[in-house]
Amino acid sequence: MRVPYAYLDQQFADAEAYFKDLRRLVASGEFTLGPFVEEFEHKFAAYLGVKHAIGTNTGTDALMLALKAVGVQPDDEVITVPNTFIATVGAVIAAGARPVFVDSDDRYQIDVTKIAAAITPRTRAIVPVHWGGCPADIEAVLAIANERGLAVVEDACPAVGARVRGRSVGTFGRVNAFSLHPLKPLNVWGDGGVAVTDDDKAAAWLRLYRNHGLRDRDHVELWGVNTRLQPVQAVVASRLMGQIPEIVATRIRNAHRLDAGLADLAGSVRVPRRPEGYREVYQLYLISVERRDALLAFLTKQGIEAKVHYPVPLHLQEAAATLGYRRGDFPVCERQADEVLTLPAHQHLTARQIDYIIEAIHAFYRRPVHTRRPASAGAGMAS
Ligand SMILES: Cc1ncc(COP(=O)(O)O)c(C=O)c1O
């Protein structure tokens, strides 16, 4: 059996409805911002429960703009994590600031107990990452930031649909960023991003800055850049918005099936804590395992495409040499980099495929499968 990690061909196998929408766009000639981008921005803001959504060319740009919008200046320090996609740190550097890392907790999120020690007089902002689509402890981050007068910019790039006690992540910080990259829960046909905020002034600045600082065709209010969301991507995103609840629900169901199936392997396989009231969207289904590289090779041989996000933390990357960190500085993150494994959990898997993953992992550790998993429609339980 094959269990692919990629699913985009399946997701867009029937793209007729999208093509119909795109015909409307082409007929309108509205190829630079305009009504299709605005329609998506309104839908996205309403979905999150936030006042403003500003479409950008990428999630990285949304993050960079968010940092600038909260006042991050050259030589400021910005606290974030070393276990994230490079873009989090790239955006901090692009904003002219210096990233200061804090170790991860047992859920692969920022360890909030270690933030205070990383704050210096130069700290301007904290960027918690909702890594893998799992909410960081954002309430604790906000409490620390408020007490110390720091801005919070959430990197919610992988986390459309994730919630903490019913409130969407990406609505807690002052200005926050989402990605519409093809491997994210709300995924378009290329690149796209969104900065979101409740702050009217920040929103006005973001709208200007992403479009050359142009107030209108003939008046430049400030020096900006061109990082507009493409209308083609806005059209795709608008249609997909309607499917987000189902996509998220299916991923959660798949993840719970994996959780239940792997529960009896404790010792060899560690499924992270899933706190009450935290809704994860499983952009990455992350576990820590014994003999990770051997298990990865075994699963690959069985036709299961697992991945590692990521084997080298950012503080140990060549690009980070100037930051002065060393191996041993973030022991939890470093251990996780050696043990973490990402299993397929996407919305196009069948229950049979998920059970096959569970069986393969049991076979690797030479343990019988005896956990009772929830049956689901069409699923052939394999053992
Ligand atoms: C945590 C995180 N931050 C930022 C980004 C950057 O988003 P984009 O690829 O849209 O620039 C990504 C995803 O690629 C991400 O996973």
Please state how the strands of the largest beta sheet are arranged side by side.
3-2-4-5
| Structural class category | alpha+beta
Percentage of residues in helical conformation: 25-40%
User: What is the count of DSSP helices, taking H or I runs of 4+ residues?
Assistant: 12
Named CATH architecture of the largest domain = 3-Layer(aba) Sandwich
**Largest sheet composition:** 4 strands, parallel
For this structure, what is the CATH homologous superfamily of the largest domain? Type I PLP-dependent aspartate aminotransferase-like (Major domain)
Q: Give the radius of gyration.
A: 21 Å
**β-strand number:** 15
**Average pLDDT value?**
96
Shape verdict: globular
- What are the low-pLDDT stretches, counting only 5+ consecutive residues below 50? 377-383
Name of the CATH class of the largest domain: Alpha Beta
Q: Enter the CATH topology name of the largest domain.
A: Aspartate Aminotransferase, domain 2
The helix-strand sequence is HHHEHEHEEHEEEEEHEEHHEEEHHEH
Strand content: 5-15%
Tell me the distance between the termini. Answer: 15 Å
What does it look like?
With 383 residues, the protein is α+β, with helices and mostly antiparallel strands. The protein folds into two domains: 13-241, Aspartate Aminotransferase, domain 2; 244-364, Aspartate Aminotransferase, domain 1. The chain contains twelve helices and 15 strands. It has helices at 8-11, 16-28, 35-48, 59-69, 86-94, 138-148, 200-209, 231-241, 244-262, 292-301, 331-339, 351-364; strands spanning 52-56, 77-80, 98-101, 123-126, 151-152, 163-164, 167-168, 175-179, 193-197, 214-216, 219-220, 269-270, 278-279, 285-289, 340-343. The strands form five sheets. The protein has a four-stranded parallel sheet, with helices on both faces. A three-stranded antiparallel sheet has the order 1-9-8. Helix 4 (59-69) packs across helix 5 (86-94) and helix 9 (244-262) runs parallel beside helix 12. The protein is globular and about 70 Å long. Mean pLDDT is 96; it is low at 377-383. Bound molecules: pyridoxal-5'-phosphate (PLP). Pyridoxal-5'-phosphate binds next to helix 4 and helix 5. Pyridoxal-5'-phosphate (PLP) binds at residues 58-60, 63, 84-85, 87-88, 129, 155, 157-158, 179, 181, 191, 193.
